[in-house]
């Protein structure tokens, strides 16, 4: 029980999802004990608390349950920074095509994407992940852990399926998806804390 409480304390103060390895190292116990204790903590919170334990962006995080989102929003009055449709389009192309250069991004969208990429880098949703080994060594861009966190994704494998051969690419990205798969646009309003803010 002491390990469960210790995990709850660590997750409460963590500013980003924590992995079992990180938690085990901090507590000096084997990873399997942490994983067992996380299961117990998740069950206890589910039945007795306004908080819940979620697995997101490769780790675990304690957050408020969705049913309290409206009250929390009224109390905290958070500033929302929703992405415009053009920024969502840039972000979606980067997410699905990464690693991708700015020139390749422009080619997919048919318009200049420099401003959009800079905005997404500032919001920590996109970052430089290397350089392509071609003349000029252009910068390669990819998504960040913050991107996974903002859209409530465990990994990039959880992205909705997209047909990039579609004649209507902007509509296809994050809009058309199989049943039970979340849309990027839908998840903008469904962060784990109930806050629609992306940053």
Identify the notable features of this structure and list them briefly.
single chain; 199 residues; alpha+beta; Arc Repressor Mutant, subunit A; 2 domains; 13% strand
SSE topology:
Blueprint lengths: L1 H12 L6 H8 L3 H18 L2 E6 L2 E6 L4 H8 L8 H13 L2 E2 H8 L4 H9 L3 E6 L7 E5 L1 H6 L18 H4 L11 H4 L12
Antiparallel strand pairs: 1-2, 3-5, 4-5
Described by the principal axes of the CA atoms, the overall outline is elongated
Would you identify the CATH architecture of the largest domain? Answer: Orthogonal Bundle
Major sheet summary line: 3 strands, antiparallel
Q: Please, how many domains?
A: 2
Description:
The protein is α+β, with helices and mostly antiparallel strands. It has two domains: 2-64, Arc Repressor Mutant, subunit A; 85-187, Arc Repressor Mutant, subunit A (Orthogonal Bundle), CATH 1.10.10. It is built from ten helices and five strands; from the N terminus they run H-H-H-E-E-H-H-E-H-H-E-E-H-H-H. Helix 1 crosses helix 3 (31-48) and helix 5 (85-97) packs across helix 7 (114-122).
Structure, briefly:
The chain is an alpha+beta fold and 199 residues long.
């Amino acid at each position: 029980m002491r390990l469960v409480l210790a995990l709850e304390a660590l997750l409460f103060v963590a500013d980003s999802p924590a992995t079992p390895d990180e938690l085990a190292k901090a507590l000096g116990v084997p990873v399997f004990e942490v994983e067992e204790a996380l299961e117990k903590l998740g069950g206890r919170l589910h039945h007795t608390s306004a908080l819940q334990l979620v697995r997101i962006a490769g780790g675990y995080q304690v957050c408020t349950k969705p049913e309290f989102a409206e009250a929390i929003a009224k109390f905290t009055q958070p500033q929302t920074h929703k992405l415009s449709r053009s920024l969502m389009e840039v972000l979606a192309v980067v997410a699905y095509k990464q690693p991708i250069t700015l020139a390749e991004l422009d080619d997919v969208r048919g318009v200049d994407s420099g401003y959009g990429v800079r905005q997404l880098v500032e919001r920590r949703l996109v970052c430089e992940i290397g350089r392509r080994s071609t003349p000029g060594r252009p910068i390669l861009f990819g998504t960040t852990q913050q991107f996974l966190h903002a859209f409530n994704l465990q990994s990039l494998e959880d992205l909705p399926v997209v047909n990039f051969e579609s004649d209507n690419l902007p509509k296809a990205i994050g809009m058309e998806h199989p049943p039970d798969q979340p849309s990027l646009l839908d998840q903008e309003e469904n962060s784990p804390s109930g806050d629609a803010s992306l940053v």
